[in-house]
Amino acid sequence: MSGMAYDIKLDTSYSESLERVIAALKDEGFGVLTRIDVHDAFKEKLGVDFRHYTILGACNPPLAHRALSARPDAGLMLPCNVVVEEDDGGTLVRIVDAAAMMQAGGLDGDPVLKEVGSEAEARLKRVAEALEG
Less packed terminus of the chain by CB within 10 Å, N or C? Predict the structure, then answer.
């Protein structure tokens, strides 16, 4: 873990790693609400080549509902971002630490949000562990 994310180095291709990440998120109750394929966007908008790099916006609906019901401004911390990046013949996956994000956003003082952040963090940590194992 580095700072506000879990970093996982995979020795699998970018496309295989992306599929594994999405499946591991699903196993923990997260769906992918947004997918930003940065390499495609840079090619289209800037005319430049960039390595495969995708930002996934993952959401666990029950946790998001609890957070937004308690504090509408919690939406600034949603969805939970996961980055899948081509890296030296393998793939680097970065998964946000939801509890650290809540703390950085000053939302961990709210008991409901602290609980939601802790639960999201535990689920995302299990995603990281599943990818490593």
Answer: C
Nearest to 2 by CA among 87, 96, 77, 112: 96
- Can you give the CATH number for the domain in which 73 is found? 3.30.310.70
The CB density around residue 133, as the number of other CB atoms within 10 Å, is 5
CB within 8 A of 73, min separation 6: which ones?
Answer: 107
**Distances 47 to 40, 60, 87 between C-alpha atoms, Å:** 10, 35, 21
Give the separation between CA 75 and CA 12, rounded to whole angstroms. Answer: 33
| pLDDT, tens digit, 9 for 90 and up, residues 69-121 | 999 998 988 899 999 999 988 999 999 988 888 777 777 788 888 899 899 99
